[in-house]
Amino acid sequence: MPKAPPLRLGVNVDHVATLRNARAGERPDPVRAALVAIEAGADGITAHLREDRRHIRDEDMARLKAEIAKPLNFEMAATADMLRTALATKPHAVCLVPERREELTTEGGLDVAGAHNALAPFIARLNDAGVRVSLFIAAEPRQIEMAAKLRAPVIEIHTGAWCDAVVDGQAAKADAEWQRILAGAALARSAGLEVHAGHGLDYATAEKIASIPEIVELNIGYYMIGEALFVGLGQTVRTMRGAMDRGRKLAGENHASRNPAGKR
Ligand code: PXP
Description:
The chain is α/β, with parallel strands linked by helices and 264 residues long. It has helices at residues 14-21, 30-39, 58-67, 80-89, 116-128, 141-149, 160-167, 171-190, 203-209, 222-231, 233-258, and strands at residues 8-12, 44-48, 72-76, 93-96, 132-137, 154-158, 194-198, 215-220. The longest helix has 26 residues, at 233-258. The model has no long low-confidence stretch (mean pLDDT 94).
């Protein structure tokens, strides 16, 4: 059977820091969580340094970079302050996300099409520094086309609306969002972009999205940290990996049907 490219799992450790910060101490330590996740099979670690530092702190980012042996994906807003920190940290990747202080989580994708003039120098500086830039966007053609024009090598498709519709049992909305993700992933790949996805994924939605061969990385946090309370983080990572591997088997067939000439 033809094989799709491998699918990486990036584990987001933000909410280990949320729990730590509830008591303003040092435990639980998000770096320890990152090490446990890697030991259990995570391919990389993701952390979001928010403007209000509500979970991850500057020193967590520095320690993650120093202490983990796998790629660090640094999520941040496109501000001058964050750019300075990212260039000093030199993570493997930076994922640019929109950020509003009052939101509970990153609610929508970055408006790359509307803010391309402001984003262009950020992307260029990070590209020049050898940091892989990813833009967290909705699976909309105009956003994807602008991401390619801005020479960002990677996009991450915001899966939040799809996951919410699945969990809420809104079948029609879930299907519409799924179709949008499918089309967006194909368009992005054909524009030469590497495609990641994330936000709100659980075992079931991760298994399903793993069947899309254009997607090569999932970044997952909140659900896994919640599950870890009951079964431990190592077990959660292994179960997630199993779900992704089951879904990925279907990606081989999907890949073959989209590349009939045998192009890989
Ligand atoms: N990807 C990006 C760009 C995000 O901002 C987040 C949330 O921080 C995630 C993935 C992970 O989302 P969740 O915590 O809902 O799994």
